[in-house]
Amino acid sequence: MNATTGLAQVSTLATHSALTAWGAVSDFLFILVLLSALFLFAWYAGRGPFVALLLAFYSAYAVYVAFPYQSFLPTAPALTALLTRIGLYAALVLLFYIILRRVVVSDFLYIGIFGLIALSFFGAAFLIALAYHVFPVASVYHFTPALDILFASKSYFFWWFIAPAIGLFFLAR
Fold first, then answer.
1. Which residues does 97 contact at the CB level (< 8 Å), separation at least 6?
2. Do residues 113 and 148 make contact, with C-beta atoms less than 8 angstroms apart?
3. Range with the poorest average pLDDT among 10-24, 66-80, 134-148
């Protein structure tokens, strides 16, 4: 083996390792961005609106699953199908957030910083689990095997789905 061949192998190994590491980090970046967005929302809007948002995720999911006009939504191209379904879900979340915001009062609610971080993580994981099991994300983007292990299993979907509710039960006082 000469120096040029050895250098090429080291370069290939370093490039492949860097790309693999970036792929793993970029997928977990989804979780961090969602976690940060939910935490900042809770921090600036308040605990009551944050709880209303988490509950709106559940309400919107219930209506989205029972939505009778799914056949009218586009199925191709894949990106259009994904965006219309996410748009429908987001519109339902907004509708239920407005309704729930009127009934969830923040005067009697306490969630500490640790609780906000945990609930933000559970909310982000809930949305990622929905991306895996409800929305056609797989036709547009392929997550890394590390996230597949956490979110692809149907049995894990239940736990990610119920995590924000359990978190609210234990962390909101």
1. 49, 52, 53, 56
2. no
3. 10-24
Site of tokens 């879900």: 89
125-144 burial: b if 16+ Cβ within 10 Å, else e: bbbbbbbbbbbebeeeeebe
CA distances from 148 to 57, 81, 152, 156 (A): 22, 22, 5, 11
pLDDT over threshold 50, residue 165: yes
- pLDDT reading at 10 higher than 50: no
Tell me what pLDDT residue 57 has: 95
**DSSP string covering 123-147, please?**
HHHHHHHHHHHTS-GGGT----HHH
**Hey, how many other C-beta atoms are within 10 angstroms of the C-beta on 84?**
14
